[in-house]
Amino acid sequence: MVVMFVDEARIHLTAGDGGAGCSSFRREKHVPKGGPDGGDGGRGGAVVLVAEVQTSTLIDYQFKKHFKATRGTHGKGSRMDGAVGEDLELTVPLGTVIRDDETGRIIADLTHAGQKAVVARGGHGGRGNTHFATPTRRAPAFAELGEPGEERWITLELKLLADAALVGFPSVGKSSLIARMSAARPKIADYPFTTLVPNLGVVKAGEYDYVVADVPGLIEGASEGLGLGHAFLRHIERTAVILHVIDLTGGYDERDPIESIGAIEAELSAHAEDLAARPTILIGNKIDMEGAREASAAVAAWAAERERAYFPVSAATGEGMESMMLAVGEVVRKARLTMEVSTAPYQAVYVYSPPEDEDLSVEMTAPGEFTVHGKHVERMVVMTDMNNDESVGFLQRRLRHAGVEPALLRAGAVDGDSITIGTVSFDFDAEGADEV
Ligand SMILES: Nc1nc2c(ncn2[C@@H]2O[C@H](COP(=O)(O)OP(=O)(O)OP(=O)(O)O)[C@@H](O)[C@H]2O)c(=O)[nH]1
Ligand SMILES: [Mg+2]
User: Which residues contact 119 (CB under 8 A, 6 or more apart)?
Assistant: First the structure.
């Protein structure tokens, strides 16, 4: 049995808007009106999710919910193009599934280190007026607006595997420790085998975050199936780091703390050889209790002789917890460095954007009212400066070119009907469109 629990976060992403194109004309001495020289707007930055080994939880996304990439800057005269907006990269743990909230569709499943998913695409920059010059229109006094960046709510979902497991005899305080280290709230009681199923908690300590499992107490013979034995030793197999907890008071069966270390380690290595070689941190718990400091000094000396990491703590008072949690974070970080990493650098698994050549369609929403759908035409509209007659005229021709007018006529639209494309509505004027 491998215990997993699901970490989830819902976040809102906004890609950068494209910068507007510029409408400008060359100015030279003695030349009354030079040709158009407006530069293009820069593309907006995208929001990109990157799978990273050193991130193991979605904890960062529990607090901050809104993320925005920078916009492209506007074009300028003298054919100066605007700067491209910077992509915003958000790191997520390996195994993060990204879902689009609106459609429920899976956008990406990032399983390898370095994999990237463009989740919100930056808007195109508007074209400057140089692009609209033709032999018959030498001085186009309009430019395109920038396209707004994509924006969406997504849900991140991660099935967690523990980085570290708290192991030890019953009642040493494993559940009390996870309760101190994380938001996990397992049952704690002064009798052995309180914990029957593992609990997982997300720990945040300094710059580290990692997942800790609190597993049922082990007893001698666990490796042969005694107690809750086998099932949980199997679980420990999958964790990179072992947090071996000892009760400095001797615990319910008055066991010598140092002897108890050997007893548990014998069970671990009897179960699987390599468990004994796993990075291990010894945690002496209940330092607040009578006689515990003397016992701790003995364990500390024993550990120092063997160059083993040892931290005396109290889950009850919090003493020693912070430095122990930081040390665990560091060992987990090192353990992750040896994890397999995809050799393919920066592989984009999925670029979120519907195909550009999506079919154009016309929908009658009410008698005399029509809505035109189509990514391409919607983009034309949103990038048009509606306050500029010349650019509106240009839009009309482009729409006709894209087949909007025949599609409207086929759908039964007549002069004067209300037409909506994206955010803009206007009256249908088939005749007028012809004249432009
Ligand atoms: N004084 C003191 N008591 C503690 C401390 N940590 C745990 N305890 C007590 O020790 C008892 C056992 O604690 P648990 O956290 O349930 O121990 P456990 O290791 O999870 O036990 P099992 O789930 O049965 O294996 C409880 O009565 C706790 O209140 C501590 O640091 N100081
Ligand atoms: Mg417990």
Answer: 13, 46, 47, 48, 49, 98, 107, 108, 152, 154, 352
